[in-house]
Design brief:
Layout: E1 3-8, E2 13-20, E3 26-33, H1 38-52, E4 58-65, H2 88-91, E5 98-102, H3 103-114, E6 122-128, E7 132-138, E8 141-142, H4 159-162, H5 164-171, H6 176-179, H7 186-207, E9 211-215, H8 222-235, H9 239-242, E10 246-248, H10 255-262
Parallel strand pairs: 1-4, 4-5, 6-9, 9-10
Antiparallel strand pairs: 1-2, 2-3, 6-7, 7-8
Helix pairs in contact: 3-10, 7-8
Length: about 270
Amino acid sequence: MSYAIGIDASGAQLGAGVVEIDSGRIIRRLETRTPSNNVAALRACVGLAEQLQGVHVIEQIGIAVPEIVSPRGQIESASKWDWRALDVAAALAHIAPTQVHSDVRAAALAEARFGAGADLECFVFLTIDEGISAVVVRYGVPWQGRCGAALVLGVPPIEDVASERALSVAVGTQNLSDDLSKPDHQLRVSEAAAVLGKELGRVVNLIDPDAVIVGGGLGLNADYREQWVSVMRESVWHRPSSLVPVVAAQLGRDAGIIGAAVAPSPNVAAIG
């Protein structure tokens, strides 16, 4: 059996686990709160990996980050913290060879191999959380694009309006999941859902996928999802295409860990 460590550095909690590469099963899992400091966040990732090593021989380490990552595995954005000048692979080299991957593509890969997309030829994977990202997956491979930037939804990015972070600011709350259905917030929520739904309609018009698979905390909120899905279906020109299944990601918060662990080097396969 071959094992790898996957680290999901995309949320408020850093999650890491030892993963069976062939099955995607997580053997051991650890979490810690995500530091806000650039160097401290990387050190926390190293600490998790060091705690996980030892019982199994680790062949590789993958880190999923909420950033644009080039086909060469270089971080090229700084939406959460700025790791562009840090040598992430070198920091973990004493444990195993390490690659960095965009979080949405890591999660999409996990769903393609072991989750809701396992039997699909083509699907759109959408994650709605603090930010919003989307990726097209065909024959099990998440499309990365020429620069690794094939994950930005909308112009300008839709996450500026319809993400958990944007909605929290708009309605003035620290706990969006509890406040989303409050009557005095419904107008802002419905406006955000409409913008998101129209953008997804454009994607479905262009791709005509077998399914839209949705992950992320806000993505799995039933009330919010019902609103943007309704707008999406109304925005799709071809009626049969508008009936595309919209399904929840099966692997939940483990998808990023699993996908990062099993992903090959970004310059070998279309994941980055």
